[in-house]
Write a structure and sequence with these properties.
D-Maltodextrin-Binding Protein, domain 2; 23 helices; single chain; 3 domains; mainly alpha; 15 strands; 3-stranded parallel sheet
């Protein structure tokens, strides 16, 4: 059966609009509401980039389908689907921008994005006033659909959000993307130091919106958006309908609406410019008094994780619990070791309790960024870790050295002696030991063993020949495992240091922990903690 598409002109379309019941008129906005709500969950599940593209594809295809609507009910159904895609597009667009733009300039760029969004309204009305009288209302849906599909194609190279990649455990992709962004931003020049930021613990629970500090922000944001959208969609967008009811043609109603909509980009531009006033980012105008003659108020202090820790009453500490003598999880569920004692001492200096969070070497950086204020437990400094975190001043100089069966000490003195096809080198995955082994032992047989507590027993039992780890650990393990010997711990293969991980960019917290470490070392208190486990 063929469906004939009636060539409705503006008067016929207006007649249909007047005859529709109110619920059918609102179906587009119902779709926008559902799209806005659903896209947050879709974005968290499938990624920002996929959801961003999917929403636009839905809108574009529905718009083309609306152009060939055989009746008004079909057109309304298409408008519902278009509303779903449009509502989701708005949410994902702003949230994606938020995850890429630095907080200092985020307000300005989101304001400029709003300028682009609301500029589309008068442009669409202008085009409609020119196109509809000549080609009919269907042409507007064709233009919208084709335009959406063109943008969809151009946006295919949009990168995924590094924040989302990190949140779902795809840390290597996130790191590679961040390095690419930094190279593009640097343009051969050094990048400025990261700004001090306060990182909240991520949560996927909807109930989090109804707890402090998000509840007050959600209420204010909801009131503002409800007011704005009521005025925008409830008045400006519906003006053509009101004009049609007064007997005006569809094209004439578009023309009057265009004049009223021209104020939207101006208001958004004013808002975007106003954002630059935060933190004194607007420079002085020509002829203005200099800072030497015009007194200014001191800048507000940046928020620090230190303030959060003091307010929370707890220091959250990530540690692996498998690295004696620094951190070890006992069968009773309690941690012990050099860094455990140190972390408890640090928490005591803040008058807060110490909360230990178990992690692993392979998940250390991800868990630290998402869950903790500090990471301890024999953490070696490295440039890879430095990209994602701050280090305290080092509290111990260390380096990689072998530990073997005592009878084999002379056989494994050098890297060359270990890097032989017949040598079985055992390594715990996820840390600097694995990185060292894969870099220098390309010919020996590498055995990955996940349990860092019982890994040394594998050498004693003849399942492996050698392990290269920190010299301090080899000294302890030769005491705990008679038959194992550390090989030249005083002359390790390479230079290494132990330090604590802190949030990247938080200078205030870093300075506090460094000062605590300096004072505890100066008084001998830190040395006492070392001697407890190493002597």
């Amino acid at each position: 059966m063929q469906v004939e598409l009636a060539p409705l002109d503006g008067r016929e379309l207006g007649a249909h609009i007047r005859q529709l019941r109110p619920p059918l008129k609102e179906i587009t906005f119902v779709g926008m509401m559902l799209g806005s709500f659903a896209t947050g969950f879709l974005g968290d599940r499938y990624g920002r980039r996929f959801t961003y593209q999917f929403n636009l594809l839905v809108f574009g295809l529905a718009s083309l389908a609306a152009a060939f609507a055989p009746n008004m009910m079909f057109l309304i159904a298409c408008r519902f689907v278009m509303g779903f895609g449009l509502g989701a597009e708005n949410v994902v667009g702003y949230s994606t921008m938020t995850e890429f733009v630095p907080a200092k300039t985020r307000g300005k760029w989101l304001g400029l994005m709003a300028v682009c969004v609301v500029t589309g309204l008068p442009i669409a009305l202008l085009i409609a006033s020119l196109i509809v009288p000549e080609f009919g209302w269907r042409a507007m849906f064709v233009l919208g659909g084709i335009g959406a599909l063109i943008v969809w194609y151009l946006r295919k190279s949009l990168p995924e959000s590094p924040r989302w990649l990190e949140a779902v455990g795809r840390t290597e992709e996130a790191e590679a993307l961040m390095q690419s962004i930094e190279r593009e931003a640097a343009q051969g020049r050094p990048l400025p130091a990261p700004s001090a930021t306060s990182t909240a613990t991520a949560s996927g629970e909807l109930a989090t919106l109804f707890t402090a500090p998000l509840l007050s922000r959600m209420i204010v944001g909801s009131v503002c958006l409800i007011t704005i959208n009521t005025l925008l969609y409830g008045f400006v967008t519906w003006l053509p309908v009101f004009f049609i009811k007064q007997g005006l043609s569809l094209a004439t109603s578009f023309g009057y609406s265009l004049l009223m909509a021209l104020g939207a980009p101006i208001g958004s531009a004013i808002g975007a410019q106003a954002q630059t006033m935060q933190a004194g980012s607007i420079t002085a105008a020509p002829g203005a008094k200099s800072s030497a003659t015009a007194p200014t108020a001191p800048p507000a202090l940046s928020s620090s994780r230190l303030d959060e820790i003091l307010a929370r009453g707890a220091l959250r500490i990530c540690t692996t619990g498998d690295y004696k003598p620094y951190s070890f999880l006992k069968p009773d569920g309690q941690f012990e070791g050099i860094d455990i004692d140190a972390a408890q001492n640090l928490a005591q200096s803040m008058n807060v309790k110490a909360e230990f969070i178990k992690t692993s070497w392979s998940n250390l950086m991800t868990d630290f960024v998402a869950k903790c204020d500090i990471a301890v437990g024999g953490v070696s400094t490295s440039l890879e870790r430095q990209k994602r975190a701050f280090f305290t001043q080092p509290y111990m100089v260390d380096g990689k050295t072998p530990i073997v069966r005592c009878a084999d000490v002379d056989k494994y003195q050098t890297v060359a002696q270990i890097d032989q096809p017949g040598v079985r080198t055992i390594v715990n995955p996820g840390g600097t030991n694995e990185k060292f082994a894969k870099q220098f032992f390309t010919h020996s047989q590498l055995i990955e063993y996940p349990d860092n507590v019982t890994i040394f027993k594998q050498i004693l039992d003849g399942q492996a020949d050698v392990m290269v780890t920190d010299a301090s650990e080899t000294l302890l393990q030769q005491k705990l495992n008679p038959g194992l010997c550390s090989v030249h711990p005083d002359k390790p293969f390479q230079f290494g240091e132990k330090a604590y991980l802190l949030p990247r960019g938080d200078v205030a917290l870093q300075q506090y922990v460094d000062q605590w470490l300096h004072l505890s070392r100066s008084t001998g208190e830190f040395q006492t903690m070392l001697d407890k486990w190493l002597k």
